[in-house]
C-alpha cells in the first residue's frame, strides 16, 4: 500500500532530500516563526496566567474591564484634584462601605429578608508562603547587587544602576505617584488586549526596532561599557 511522504519528515531517501533542497521554505516555514516580542512561546492569555484575570485584561469581559477603567479614572481625579490626602480618602471610602453593609444587614433582618452571604476574606497559608518565598528571592538578589556596588566590586553594574535610578528620578519629577499608578493601570488594561489583537504587526515592527537597538547597544557596549573596569580597586602584590 502506497503511503504519502511528508517533505518535512527526516527520511534518508534521496527523493525526500531532493524535495527539501528544492523547497527549503516548506520545512522552515513551520519552525521559523520570526521575531516575537519578549521571545514569547505562549499566547498572551497563557502568559498573563489564564483564568478570569486574564479574561478581564484581554477584554473578554468588557463590562468588568470598562468598570476598572472608570473606577481608576474616578480615583485618580479624587486623589489629584480633591485636595484630600490619601489616608482621608481611604478612610472615607471604608467608612461608607462599612456603614452601608451594616445598615443593609439590619434592614434585611428587620423586614425578614435573606441577605446574600459575603465571601470569607482569608489568605491561605500556601499563598502566603509562596508569595513570601518569591519576595525573599528577589530581595536577596537586590541586596547582593547592593553589596557588590557598595564594595566597588562591579563598576559596570554601578553605572547601570545609577543610570536607571536617574531615569526614575526624572520620570518621578514629571508625574506624581498617583498619576504613575493611574498610567500603569490604564496601560495594563489596554496594551495586552491591543497586542493580542495586532500581535503580528507589532512583532514585525518590534523585530525591526530590536535589530536597530541591538546594533546601537553593541556599539555603546564595545566603546563605553566594555572599557569600564569591573572594579576600581586593583590588587597589589604583597
TrEMBL record:
Residues 53-238 form the Reticulon domain. It is a multi-pass membrane protein. Pfam families: Reticulon. It is found in: Endoplasmic reticulum membrane. One of its GO terms (biological process) is response to bacterium. PANTHER family: RETICULON, RETICULON-LIKE PROTEIN B16. This is Reticulon-like protein. The lineage of its organism: Eukaryota, Viridiplantae, Streptophyta, Embryophyta, Tracheophyta.
Amino acid at each position: 500500500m502506497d503511503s504519502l511522504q511528508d517533505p518535512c519528515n527526516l527520511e534518508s531517501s534521496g527523493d525526500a532530500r531532493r524535495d527539501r533542497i528544492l523547497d527549503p521554505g516548506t520545512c522552515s516555514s513551520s519552525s521559523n516563526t520570526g521575531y516575537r516580542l519578549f521571545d514569547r512561546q505562549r499566547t498572551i492569555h497563557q502568559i498573563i496566567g489564564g483564568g478570569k484575570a486574564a479574561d478581564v485584561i484581554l477584554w473578554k469581559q468588557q463590562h468588568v474591564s470598562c468598570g476598572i477603567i472608570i473606577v481608576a479614572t474616578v480615583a485618580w481625579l479624587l486623589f489629584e484634584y480633591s485636595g484630600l490626602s490619601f489616608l482621608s480618602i481611604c478612610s472615607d471610602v471604608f467608612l461608607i462601605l462599612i456603614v452601608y453593609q451594616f445598615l443593609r444587614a439590619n434592614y434585611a433582618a428587620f423586614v425578614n429578608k435573606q441577605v446574600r452571604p459575603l465571601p470569607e476574606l482569608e489568605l491561605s497559608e500556601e499563598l502566603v508562603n509562596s508569595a513570601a518565598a518569591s519576595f525573599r528571592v528577589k530581595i536577596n538578589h537586590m541586596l547582593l547587587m547592593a553589596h557588590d556596588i557598595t564594595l566597588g566590586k562591579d563598576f559596570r553594574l554601578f553605572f547601570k544602576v545609577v543610570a536607571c535610578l536617574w531615569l526614575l528620578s526624572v520620570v518621578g519629577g514629571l508625574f506624581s505617584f498617583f498619576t504613575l499608578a493611574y498610567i500603569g493601570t490604564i496601560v495594563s488594561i489596554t496594551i495586552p488586549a491591543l497586542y493580542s489583537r495586532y500581535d503580528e504587526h507589532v512583532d514585525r515592527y518590534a523585530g525591526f526596532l530590536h535589530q536597530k537597538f541591538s546594533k546601537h547597544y553593541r556599539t555603546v557596549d564595545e566603546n563605553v561599557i566594555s572599557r569600564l573596569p569591573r572594579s576600581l580597586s586593583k590588587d597589589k602584590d604583597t
